[in-house]
Design brief:
By secondary structure, the protein is an alpha/beta fold. The protein has nine helices and five strands.
């Protein structure tokens, strides 16, 4: 909706895909976010893939992220990044993180332990190719949420009437809102911690 917002002079928040477009036009080559969008669960029933993944094929920007949101199909998202030819590199990790969790069984394409070396690679690769790069930076260890705890909150939230009745663009916000409530704010604290860490990198 960016074009319509610009045309009408209205205001709004931006997704990762829209931020990539704006950053590239402004000459910004690296920005931080919490998590990128991806392939939604039950894709075979309701096809839903975030525009973030396709924006990475069009905009020459590196995105520092703690992976994709845990409510998504993380293996399918990692596979889609591979299919689209998007480089995924890890900062001090050799696995693709799972937002609230530091570890998955999914690999990254390369690992950098030194931020100066990482920056040099990003400059080289962004100049070489007209596409984006995903820089995977796991949530700080002290702020990680245990997988079993996250699964418990998520399953409970999915069964709530407020979530079951939500559809379309309202489905994800409704689910996240209930998970935040059930966690007594722990997921919000973790969101802030990983966003600050990504911005710091």
């Amino acid at each position: 909706n960016l074009g319509h917002a610009l045309f009408t002079g209205s205001h709004g928040a931006t997704t990762v895909s829209t931020t990539m477009e704006l950053a590239e036009r402004a000459g910004i080559r690296v920005f931080a976010t919490g998590g990128i969008g991806g392939v939604h669960r039950d894709y075979h029933l309701t096809p839903d893939i975030s525009a973030d993944l396709f924006a990475l094929t069009r905009h020459r920007v590196a995105v520092v992220t703690s992976g994709c949101k845990n409510i998504l199909d993380i293996p399918a998202t990692r596979e889609m990044l591979e299919t689209l030819g998007i480089p995924v590199v890890g900062y001090r990790t050799d696995v693709f993180p799972a937002f609230y969790q530091r570890q998955t069984h999914l690999s990254v394409d390369a690992t950098f332990d030194n931020p100066t070396e990482l920056a040099a690679y990003l400059a080289f690769e962004l100049a070489r190719h007209k596409r984006g790069i995903v820089v995977a930076n796991p949530i700080p260890e002290s702020d990680e949420i245990a997988q079993n705890q996250w699964d418990e909150w998520l399953q409970e939230a999915r069964n709530l009437p407020s979530v079951k009745s939500a559809g379309g663009r309202d489905a994800t916000p409704a689910l996240l809102a209930e998970v935040h409530r059930l966690s007594a704010g722990r997921t919000v604290d973790a969101n802030i911690a990983l966003a600050v860490s990504n911005a710091g990198l």
